């Protein structure tokens, strides 16, 4: 299988109009991404997303320590890549914000980070089973999904020190996704719409793949060539990403009156 | 199994009152079909349906490139069977509209086409497992569900060229449903209510059948005779189809205030 | 296993205050049962319930041919035990109403009948796997769940003739539940609240039991003694049945404004 | 496996600000816990929670015999640890309230008890399969989850006598959770937010663990050291518990207008 999942640098995907130009636009997009992830059941009380500040590559935006479901503009903090809260506030940040800072520092070509715990990825993480692209919308997984298991002793499996943040970023390397054993996953992307799409389709791909694993049947996964082409022309193309973001935002607006 | 799933032409099912008589009626039915499929979770941001124009057999109606969940009358485009947008508009059509044109061209007795990616069919598509009718509402599957795996190299597994559209239509042949490996399925029907019913019950049949496959138990599938009779007298009879469409529309009205 | 599931007559469970005293009360209870079954996802567009007329033991109440989700007082028909519509109306009854008449005729001690197709029972019906009580709320299944597979040739697996209605009633015998191969199940009960509870907990019991079957593990099912006691003192006791009906009705009221 | 799940006393977790100081605060928290558990699908018509009276360690608060989904302040009864209703009322208490009294009597360091029947735990209870922590939010399960199977003969598997209440409390011992064979589970915690979190994450852990069991794959569970640290620094820390409770309460407020 290693021949299919080479460690070559992941191709750069052209940035779309979905990248906010100002801090204010970025903050609003972070609010919407939180609401989408809460509304779609990708995040519950736990887990978080971040977006690099378009006005300062050394800081990012993220909600304070509340559930994504409840995020508003007033809950967004500006945080530097070492995890220091830049916003003058007494609001409490997430304990694991260091994950976001460390990955954004290590991946200057990327701007958005997801950390979450949805159930579909856990069986893969504890059984050392590689996640592989099983459909065209899982194509972004084609370079493999490594599994992190190098937790700080006594840290309760949470990533809260600068050292462990750096280990996490190093382990993720040039991948878009890695799993954390018995914990969840981290995802990195060029922008928030792609990040949200990657979280949704990682869940869907893992769910379907596990059903196939349970059957014991041999399956035809996407080849690297198929996956690369599917990613460039399909999933992460500007048009489908706009359609997806529009769809998820429309569902937020239907379900959450304060977002209309 | 081939003896049970012969390739004889699929019987013509009498057309019901559900076929709109005018372009305006057809457009409204396309909007409702989109909303139903979004509301029932059969389509998400991706996937699409179409209906032949009752005033011009050489064109069909379909939404522009948005999620079915959001469709309104203003989003419906008229498109010819080669995929050219006939409506004078700058609105963007779906990249894969050629699937609809090619199938409607090859199947003059049919009027409605579905293309989608719901999870239940994927395991069958990648493990070469035949979908077979396991209940009376799965009876329309009795002539078999072939699996397409002849993608354009470099096309990202999307169907966007006239050539591949023709291959898709040829592969579907006289079937009502085929799967696309690692991608989803296409369905064709006489009218939109039957098409929506086929999508819903394909999902349900696949879901149940996979549970049986996981158990490793032998199952008694519908015989061809049972399936034919179930289809003629049951699932696709005028009365159940009206009841189903009424049900799905009632749920759309409950959940989507703008459709009341 | 036959030693555990003897064919002795099922005990008579004391009738509760939940039996309506008048036709008008019965009609309203039928409306509510329809809404509950639609709201809980036990019935979709298809399937139906009935309740014997408390003012005439030879007729029963049932909605016309619409989805249970949409039922109102104006949709309730009075039908005799041979399936003749007594109500002076042009409204269309269900094709399968003969199931209800035949079972109510054969079971004078019972007053309510359910016919539905929820997915959880299908795998048992096509693999000849006995459903057995796995929890206290599945206790009513303790005398076994036989599987009917004696369909009228050419009838499309639907039960629409007097003859097949009688075969169905005979096959059900003194059981509370039987399955129809590749189709669904019939349930009979003393009153509508018990009938609805039996439908919900049949689904739950089947769902859990299938998970155990998939694991290949040996399981400890309820013994006949446990099941009998659980049924008398627990599930079908007046207090839990009132609580369940109150719960399901409260959910209907929350979700369906016209029922408030 | 016994080496991993020693029977040493479970560590005392520091009490948080989540413990109400007055009876009135406690009553309101019991209402909210009921609504949360109903809204999250952890409890349906059956099952119940309780909280010790902060003004009298020998009584607890619990709703009368209604579904948690419907609980209001007016439904809360004060009950002593032997199950006698202290509130002057004709409202009917739950038959199984003795579970709550017996556990609160045996565990003076604890203040909240849950009894419920969600599907995810049943397969473990009937196949004698130990539930083990598979993620950091399942860490509170690290000392093992024993399975009770010592029902009163003829009691219908319900816990309604003082004697059986005491057996239940003794069987639970110093654990946080035990299962009841073919019935459900009991959970005990320092306060209601932790209790609700334990119920939600027991469900999630059991759901994921069963998927792994179905696969037949070896899995890496949390070590005792990991689990202890995850529990102290993570799941049951003040900050995540506040975030979880805020999240679940926000969802109640969105879905239940009378709770706004």
What share of residues are in beta strands of chain A? 5-15%
Mean pLDDT of chain A: 92
Give the strand tally of chain A. 7
Report the uncertain regions of chain A.
1-15
Total helical segments of chain A = 7
Sheet with the most strands of chain A?
7 strands, mixed
Q: Helices and strands of chain A, in N-to-C order?
A: HEEEHEHEHEEHHH
Largest interface: A-B, 37 and 35 residues
Oligomer: homotetramer
Spatially, the strands of the biggest sheet of chain A line up as 3-2-1-4-7-6-5
How large, in whole angstroms, is the Cα Rg of chain A? 17 Å
By helix and strand content of chain A, what is the structural category?
A: alpha+beta
Summarize the structure.
Four copies of one chain form a homotetramer. Chain A is an alpha+beta fold and 260 residues long. In chain A, 38% of the residues lie in helices and 14% in strands.
Textual characterization of the structure:
Four copies of one chain form a homotetramer. The termini of chain A are far apart. The model of chain A is unreliable at 1-15 (pLDDT under 50). In chain A, strands 3-2-1-4-7-6-5 form a seven-stranded mixed sheet, with helices on both faces. In chain A, strand 1 (48-53) and strand 2 form a beta hairpin. Chain A is globular and about 55 Å long. The longest helix of chain A is centred in the C-terminal third of the chain and has 24 residues, at 192-215. The first copy, chain A, is α+β, with helices and mostly antiparallel strands and 260 residues long. In chain A, helix 1 (23-39) runs parallel beside helix 5 (192-215), helix 1 (23-39) packs across helix 7 and helix 2 (97-106) crosses helix 4. Chain A contains seven helices and seven strands, in the order H-E-E-E-H-E-H-E-H-E-E-H-H-H. Chains in contact: A-B, A-D, B-C, C-D. Chains A and B meet through helix 5, helix 6 and helix 7 of A and helix 3 and helix 5 of B.
